[in-house]
Amino acid sequence: MVTGTKYARAVAESVTDPELPVLTLADLGVLRDVELTDDGVVVVSITPTYSGCPAMHEMRSDLNSRLHEAGFADVEVRTVLDPPWTTDWISAMGRQKLADYGIAPPGAAPQRASGPVPLTLTPPRARIRCPQCGSPDTEQVSRFGSTACKALRRCRSCREPFEHLKEI
């Protein structure tokens, strides 16, 4: 049996996000903790990017598979909801990987008081830079892209479409 919290953490940190395979779960900030209990169980804590995130099942499955392949016999993946995930948890390297992949990384997450999320009917007025040419002259084509956490945009300068990971 393989041992070592550092090794277990390194394996967990290498698992990629199923919807954004250019990012690891660590880059995305959903990997919260990796512990090795006294009886040899690897306990991994992850936080969903949003309530009902369909990728959570795949994240759990991928973490279990990779840790088992690395020699850990017992793996437990826990979901941690508090504090809720925010796009501010995406690492600087993760933001660069998104841009290099052609997805505009999110800006700073909106600050709000704790409690229920207020309903806003108007879209935010953000200047999103094109990941292809860097121009801030972009327009939103659709509030939703290939996943609920992305919006579809188009650059008015280079005319290329691109996705933007929304600020949460």
Kindly describe this structure:
The protein has 168 residues and is an alpha/beta fold. 22% of the residues lie in helices and 21% in strands. The protein has helices spanning 5-13, 25-28, 56-69, 92-101; strands at residues 31-36, 41-46, 74-79, 103-104, 138-142, 150-155, 161-165. It has a 4-stranded mixed sheet with strand order 4-7-6-5. The chain has a 3-stranded mixed sheet with strand order 1-2-3. The longest helix is centred in the middle third of the chain and has 14 residues, at 56-69. The protein is elongated, with a radius of gyration of 18 Å. The model has no long low-confidence stretch (mean pLDDT 90).
Please outline what is shown here.
The chain is an alpha/beta fold and 168 residues long.
Shape, please?
elongated
Share of helix, binned: 10-25%
Would you count the extended β strands for me?
7
Q: From N to C, what is the helix and strand string?
A: HHEEHEHEEEE
Distance between the termini: 40 Å
Strand % is 15-25%
Mean pLDDT figure = 90
Structural class call reads: alpha/beta
Largest sheet: 4 strands, mixed
Q: In angstroms, what is the radius of gyration?
A: 18 Å
How many helix segments? 4
The main sheet orders its strands as 4-7-6-5
Instruction: List segments where confidence is low: pLDDT < 50 over at least 5 consecutive residues.
Output: none
Secondary structure topology:
Layout: H1 5-13, H2 25-28, E1 31-36, E2 41-46, H3 56-69, E3 74-79, H4 92-101, E4 103-104, E5 138-142, E6 150-155, E7 161-165
Parallel strand pairs: 2-3, 4-7
Antiparallel strand pairs: 1-2, 5-6, 6-7
